[in-house]
Amino acid sequence: MAGKKPRSVYTCSNCGSQSPKWLGKCPDCQQWNSFVEETLAPTSPRSSATAASGGDSAVALRLEQISGGAEQRQPCAIAELDRVLGGGIVPGSFILIGGDPGIGKSTLLLQAVAALAQQRKVLYVTAEESALQVKLRAQRLQISASELFLLAETALERIFDRVKEIKPAFLVVDSIQTIFTSALESAPGSVSQVRECAGMLMQLAKHSGIPTFIVGHVTKDGSIAGPRVLEHMVDTVLYFEGDPGHPYRILRAVKNRYGSTNEIGVFEMSDRGLRQVNNPSEIFLAERAEDAPGSVVITSLEGSRPILVELQALVSSAPYGTARRTTMGIDHNRVALLVAVLEKKAGISLLNHDIFVNVAGGVKIDEPAADLGILVALVSSHLNKIIPRRTIIFGETGLAGEIRAVARPELRVQEAARLGFERCIMPQGNIRSLEVPAGITVQGVATVQQTLDVLFDISS
Questions:
Q1: What is the pLDDT of residue 71?
Q2: Which residue has the higher pLDDT, 19 or 68?
Q3: How far apart are CA 138 and CA 249, in angstroms?
Q4: Greatest CA span in the chain, whole angstroms?
Q5: I need a labelling partner for 79 at 20 to 30 A (CA). Which of 264, 355, 369, 387 fits?
Q6: 361 — alpha (psi -120 to 50), left (phi > 0) or beta?
Q7: How many Å apart are CA 14 and CA 191, to the nearest integer?
Q8: Residue 192 CA, distance from chain mean position
Q9: Which of 217, 272, 268 is nearest to 239 (CA)?
Q10: What are φ and ψ of residue 297, in 5° steps?
């Protein structure tokens, strides 16, 4: 009997949805021009993923029959990475690290596995570079590890053979978009290849208990390239962020089954690799200008870590008919909303003014506690009035002009006091149960107008 012929399908590169014909818009994720043609080879009832994991069928167990308690984490000697992972590497975990090209993903992993490879075997699969290129990077970083094995390979089946031979304690695959399996005829990096290879690596990690790191490229909009199901497969998704014009890099956890999300680690890129920044608040405030209107210090809570950053605003009259609104590190729509609140609730019209808002140091702030700082910076620049240097501000602003309470105010105030700030303007609702540290005074505000009166003596 003749075998089945390969067939072609169209797969959405964003969500993985399939269609027998090309569609201009995906009916599932509503993405335009995302369908690509792929050739599917006939497969046997036993999937390659099951074969890779050993072929044994799973046995259902009662909850009481399952042994083991809290997971035993393995520290990787990089405290900032351990913080983002939730305290260390969990056995059998499947971790995805994404980021822009050249941001430092491979450098970070090489530094991490070098520390792990001092006593335990680590297999580093380099699918994009040769083993010699990785060796030269290791020499530049002054890395020496006797148990670090390099494998320049793109075929997944041969990678599994080397894993069975070496029996590593940790596995790194750089990157998932360049790995392919012979079970599929599509090209490496296609939706089906990324999905299948990731599934097989996940089975390997879960059945063998080998913690596995995979590197993922990102698209122009900053999301992981390939099907969105890739992020659902892994246990942890880490994004490496950074401005090319700044040496600082931020490792952010957007998904973590073994720890808190939105936890960050801060690094500084140097000629010898990534250096940990244990006190990011001091770094981000080191070059703050003296007595500059439009400059204010706000506090952002990233996971369990409070970080103080400088927020800058510049308001100037628009030379042409249409005013510009430019933001860096802050949501553009949030700034537009706060400008409308200023006009309606405080009588300060910025309609005919260009507005520029920037978070110094290349940091991205996405929590509502920065609202009050943005408002104050805009008014400070507009009125050309200086905010006292040792004053810190945080609070969420509502559409009615009220200042709402934010989460974990005690951590924010403690960090400000530790860095020598003397005054904190914060929501009135956070003061009731707050223990104020020594050396700093707090002042609660309930409305936008009250805040402006306190800082700039503006009457309504």
A1: 64
A2: 19
A3: 20
A4: 89
A5: 369
A6: left
A7: 9
A8: 25
A9: 217
A10: -100, 125
Q: Rounding to the nearest 10 degrees, give the CA dihedral for residues 78, 80, 86, 90.
A: -20
The tokens describing 211, both together, are 């913690």
> Among residues of the chain, what percentage have pLDDT more than 90?
49
Most confident of 139-143, 202-206, 275-279: 202-206
Return d(Cα 311, Cα 40) in angstroms, integer.
52
Classify 410 in phi/psi space as left (phi over 0), alpha (psi -120 to 50) or beta.
alpha
- Edge to edge, the sheet with strand 248-256 lists 148-151, 122-126, 170-174, 212-216, 94-99, 236-241, 248-256, 264-270, 273-276
Q: Is the pTM of this model over 0.90?
A: no
Beta carbons within 8 Å of 310's beta carbon, 6+ residues apart:
284, 285, 288, 295, 296, 297, 359, 360, 361
Contact 205, 212 (CB under 8 A): yes
Q: What is the pLDDT of residues 399-424, one digit of tens each?
A: 999 999 999 999 999 999 999 999 99
R_g (Cα) of the chain, nearest Å: 26
Distance CA 358, CA 313 (A): 6
Q: Is the pLDDT of residue 244 over 80?
A: no
pLDDT of res. 29: 80
CB 108 within 8 A of CB 240: yes
Pairwise CA distance, residues 378 & 393, whole Å: 13
In whole angstroms, give the CA distance from residue 270 to residue 396.
Answer: 36
pLDDT of residue 372 exceeding 80: yes
End-to-end CA distance of the chain: 88
What tokens appear for 32 in the block? 């335009």
